[in-house]
Structure formats: C-alpha cells, structure tokens
Write a structure and sequence with these properties.
The structure is a homodimer. The first copy, chain A, is an alpha+beta fold. Chain A has two domains: about 130 residues, Creatine Amidinohydrolase, Chain A, domain 1 (3-Layer(aba) Sandwich), CATH 3.40.350; about 260 residues, Creatine Amidinohydrolase. The first copy, chain A, is about 35% helix and about 20% strand. Chain A contains eleven helices and 17 strands. In chain A, strands 4-3-2-1-5-6 form a six-stranded mixed β-sheet. Chain A has a five-stranded antiparallel β-sheet with strand order 11-10-12-15-16. The first copy, chain A, is elongated, with a radius of gyration of 23 Å.
C-alpha cells in the first residue's frame, strides 16, 4: 500500500463516521496529496473501495503516477453513473459528496452539481486541511531537503551582497541559487487571491511598507500590480535586510527568515532583533505535543508587550497581522495557525514555521523564522541556517 | 479621469443595460484592473456613481493607489448597508449584484451571500473577461516592455547554452536574466488549478512528454508535484530545445517561443519547424479586425493536415490541445482563444499569442510563438526576438 493509499484510507474512515458517500477531490494540490499525481481531472475517493481518478490530461502520466484507478474523464454525462458505481450505496440512495469548497470556484461547482443531480454536497475542505496538518516521514524528508536548499542558496548569496545592490537584484540571485539546487519555482498558497514570489526580501524602510500579504513583512514590490516583496530599494549600510525565503522541493515548502545587515544595526533595532530571538526561544520551550496552538501566540504577545514592543510586533498599527506562525507543507498557509481561535493541540508530525518579527515604519523589519517538526518529545528544527543576526 | 475610472465607466454602461445594481469585484487581478490597486478587499462598482474599495490590508496603500473611494472593510455586518448606500435603487428594492463566479470559491461566495441577504447574484466573469480582451495603449505599452525584457533575457542566455546543461539550469539562467530586467516573478493564470513557472523550457524527448498544462508543449518537470516544464534532462546536440517563455512587467505578460538547437535538427523536425513558421505567416495574413477567432484555428488545422502533420499539431494523440493561440494581458489565459467555438471577431486592441507547434514523441517539440496586437489595419508584432530557428 502506497502512502497515497494510506491517506485515502484515513479519509475513508472519517467519511464512514460522517456517513458521506465519497470525496470528490478537485484541487490539484489535494489530488496530488491523495494519489501522487497532479494531472487535470477529478479524484473520487468513495467511503469504501478503490479511488477513481478521472483524467482529462495527461492520461498517460496519470496512469504512470497515480495510486488510484485511472480512467479518461470523457463525457460529463457519464459522471453520475461512474461515481455511483464506486459507492456502496443502493442504486436509488442519494449520494452525499464532500469536496473542497474553500477553493472550488462557484462556476465549476455549479457544473458538478448539474452533473450529479440529487447529490447532497458537503464542505470537506477543513477535513482535508486537518489531515494534511500531520506530516508523514516522506513529507518531513522533503521539507528537510527544502530546508537544506534554502540554506545552501542563502550561503551562496551572502558573499555577493553589497551596498547599492537593489532588492530585486538580491532576490534574483537567491532565486537563481534556489533553482540550481532543485527549487520547483512555485510557492503554493491556498487562500483566495494569495500569491508568494519566493518570499519577502526587502531592506530598511521598504521592508516596513505594509502589504496586503497575510504576513508580518511587507515590501514595495516592483509595481502596484504585485505589491509585495522586493522592489527597487537599494541596500544601505546599517539597515536591516529581511531575507524571508522559501522554496519547493518534491512538492514541499520550507519557510525561513534571517535578518542581515551590512555593518551594524542601530541599538533599537538590534534590541528588537534580540527580542525576536528571545520570543523564538521562549516559544521553543513550549513547543510540544498537547500545547494549544493559540497559546503560543498569546504567550508571545505577553512577552513582546512586556518588552515594550507590542506596537511593532508582526507589522505596525492597522497593518499588524495576528499570528506567530503557520503550518507548512504542500502549501505555505497550512494548519495549524499559531493565532487566536486556533485550538488545535500540537501533535507529532505537525510542521510549523514560527516567525517573530518587528516592524519599524521608515526604518525596517527585523526578525527570525525557523520551521519546526513537532516530535513525540518536543520539537526538531528543520531549518538549518546559522543562528543570529548575519553581518555581511 | 484615470484609465481605471474609464474602465469602471464602461462596466457601468454594461450594467445599466442589464439592470444590475453593481459589480462586486473580488478577484485581485480584476480589482487591479478596475482601480489600479491590489490590496486585500472588495471593489464595489455601482451601476452609477463612485466605486467603493473596501480594504482589509493595506488601507494605507489602497488610499495611495486606488482610483476609487477607499474605506476600511471593517465588519461584514455593515456590508449590505454600505453597498446599498452606493446604489441608486430604492431602499427596499432588491440588489442585483454581479461577481466573478469563474474564480470565486464557493465558501467565500456563501459568506458574501449571507452578508447581503435578499441580493440576487449574477455571474459577471465573462463580461469582465470580454472587457479585458481589448487593451488600452498603457496596457499595450506594458506588454511591449515585457516583450523587450523576454528578448533581452533570451539573448543574454544564448551564449551560455552548452551540451550537457540540464533543462532546469537553462531555466534558472533565463529566470535570473528576466528578474534582473524587471520581471515580477509571476505568470498569472485564471483557470482553476492552473500554474505556470515562467514557461516551458525543455529539450528533445522530455519536451514531448505530455502534461496537464493546457498548452501544446510539455516537459517532465522536476517531480510529479509540479509535472510540467523543465526537468533534469540534459541538452543534447541535434535535439530541439523549446524555449517558450514569458515574463510580467507592470502587471502585464508576454508569451514567446523560439526553437533552439545545438548544431542542426534532423530533416523531419526541421521540416515541421518550417511548417510551423508557414502556419504563423498564413495566420498573420488573416489577422485583422473582423476575422473570427475560431477561423484562424480551423485554417491552421487545414494547413497542417495538408502538410501531413495533423497528428503532431499542438501535442500528440490524446494529449493534443485544440487551439492555436490565446489572448494575453494581466493573465496568460485571456480571451479570445483561437479555438473552435470562439466566435469573437478580432478587434483593434486585442493582444493574442499565436503558437503553432509540433510534437514528436521521443524526439521533441518544434515551433514558434509570437504575440500580436490587432490594429485598425491588421496587426503589429509585439514580440521582437529574432526570427527563425536559433542555432547555438
């Protein structure tokens, strides 16, 4: 049994508990997660029995890759009959089908509803996201390799950092080194309208410019049509250079931040950087199975308020984001989120990026981010880059 | 009046014809198109009067950038009241609101429906896509600049192409050169589950491996989790190297393909390449206002069948795609598509990438792609790279 079939089996157990007939997986990332192939089509996992991967293109590749029965998608008119044939339900019993309503567009959902008349639909997206929260050893291995690639790329680039270099030039160097080492060139996000271009690489005041992006760092970007991350600002001695980067290896993402500086930071920013490290150390001390995700955020809030840095934590003023970290895997924005309202107890196999940062408008962003695996006894850091402020 | 307000005005004219109360623009690309800002939130364009941009983050940047009244999104409870206040309708008349159901996820649509009880909803996505089909001079200028960047990057990379170089190394070089020249690092696509990583750069048999991607070229990719474009295949003398690349400048995309070879192609592939050029020349001869989009595809089909290459055109066998070209602008997959069923008459301001290609399983893909502006008198080629097969 492949890891993909084991995932289907877990989902089937949950479906049986709920009385669902099956799960029609439509999102390419979820399809890959459950069958190991990412061709165009639909993966139907019945509550019992073999999964059916209905593929438009490329059938050949789906047949080579997928842990599922593969058939050509063919006519939508045959969809109802073919899905029903996979279900244990009596021929006239109504189907109860889950799918990912957090990402599925309304128009396509309408087409699916019309193709499966009489079916009841259920939003299965949270269940999928909760299953994906716990990583298997192969997933951890891929994330570990991505961490190695990010570190190697960062180290390869550091000797080339110079005053007067533009943010986008630094980003171009980083991306080149990442790609040479196996980065697949995408940073997938699940949330509607979300995009990420390798990460947030920005310097001084430009890094502190707020963005729409649901993260603590900002950046001007090159143009209002992609208003985040690297722009044309030049690296200046004494300013914090935020290098918040990731990459994708074998489908899995890593996320890591280091603060760099040419020369020295001014004492106030250096102090804030030190507090970010202290927050990360304090969080590590609490990072273990059973700890409630939101508590880590609330504890960090207390700590930064005591340090007098509450107004600068994870953005500034109205543009603050209200989290300390996030799950990561096939997508950047996975569960659990270390934020208020997320009551998940940490569990072995979770992979979480933790990123305390402080924003000083007009001056810059300082902080650190590492990605952690929750283990039976606590945690293991997956990111391997050198600790501390990096002086160039 | 800004270009963004002119676009709102055109949309308002269409809404008045249809009796819609307003358009709730939710997709980040469309929000940018209509107001010049891409922050997180919703842009409401009433059938008459000023547009309202309700912004979650970053309010500051939205205020600086947007051609619309900007307010904090605030509580969803106030949404109905605030949208109604923008509409000319009587206080008790039901609202009839269009939005982009081709991209809006079901879950978020449900939230919007709950926030606006009693509103009737309309799928406005086709209207938006049809408006965006006709580019304004500023949009054409951005696409022209993207074309210049792609050409400069290609020329910068050509001298470094060597036998034994891996596809992904060539892609990394291209991306580096694109980014140094202003490429924003994204290739936006609208269709669900669609992704593009700079383009399709692949060699020999690997380029002919079919993909899920809705385009004629393939590529193994680095892993089944991103199964398209560059992989680990090495460049070999005499094999066609397909360099189908684009970039984004000021939000706008370009798409261009050149076939490269180290040494010479074998006669059969050289012949197919020549036919691809002939198809492009024949298409250019028909490219003018009034020509129906699908006819260009059907004429090309006739031409390649006469040349005995029908089985290889735009992919091979079951993995053929059934189009000759596509509109391009803020997204790669814009209207019109040069494919059966697309009855749009060409009109001045349309920008269309035309990409005749031939796939030979086990041997490679050859072809050419240029991007054209439809003008009053015919067309202008926006891509500027050198013509013909490029011998390295």
């Amino acid at each position: 049994m492949t890891i993909f079939q084991l995932r289907q089996q877990w989902l089937q157990g949950e479906m049986i508990k709920r009385g669902w007939s099956g799960f029609l997986v439509t999102h390419h990332v979820d399809i890959y997660y459950y069958c190991g192939s990412m061709q165009t089509g639909y993966l139907f996992i019945p509550a019992e029995g073999e999964a059916l991967y209905l593929v438009r293109r490329s059938l050949i590749r789906a047949e080579e890759e997928a842990s599922a029965d593969v058939e050509a998608l063919g006519s939508w008119k045959t969809l109802a009959e073919r899905l029903r044939a996979r279900c244990a339900a009596a021929a006239d019993a109504p189907l109860w089908i889950a799918t990912e309503l957090d990402v599925l567009p309304v128009q396509l959902f309408g087409k699916l509803q019309a193709a499966l008349p009489g079916a009841a639909w259920e939003d299965g997206s949270l269940l999928v996201r909760e299953q994906r929260m716990i990583k298997s050893p192969d997933e951890v291995a891929a994330i570990r390799e991505a961490a190695r690639v990010v570190d190697a790329a960062l180290e390869a680039v550091i000797p080339h950092i110079r005053e007067g270099m533009a943010e986008f030039e630094l980003m171009a160097l980083i991306e080149h080194q990442l790609r040479l080492r196996g980065h697949q060139g995408l940073m997938r996000m699940r949330a509607y309208n979300s995009e990420l271009i390798t990460g947030m690489v920005a310097t001084g005041a430009a890094a502190a410019v707020p963005t729409y992006f649901d993260g603590p760092a900002g950046g001007t970007g090159l143009h209002p049509s992609s208003p985040q991350s690297s722009g044309r600002a030049l690296l200046v001695r004494g300013e914090p250079i935020l290098v918040d980067i990731g990459c994708m290896v074998d489908g899995y993402l890593i996320d890591q931040t280091r603060t760099l500086v040419i020369g020295d930071l001014d004492p106030e920013l250096q102090h804030a950087y030190d507090v970010a490290e202290q927050v990360l150390r304090a969080t590590e001390a609490k990072l273990q199975p059973g700890m409630i995700a939101e508590h880590l955020y609330l504890l960090a809030l207390d700590q930064v308020q005591e340090a007098g840095l509450g107004a600068h934590f994870m953005g500034y003023g109205a543009d603050q984001v209200k989290f300390l970290g996030h799950g990561i895997g096939l997508e950047i924005d996975e569960l659990p989120v270390l934020a208020k309202g997320f009551k998940y107890p940490l569990a072995p196999g979770m992979v979480i990026a933790i990123e305390p940062k402080f924003t000083f408008p007009g001056r810059g962003v300082v902080g650190v981010e590492d990605t952690y695996l929750i283990t039976d006894s606590g945690w293991e850091k997956l990111t391997i880059s050198r600790q501390g402020l990096i002086r160039v």
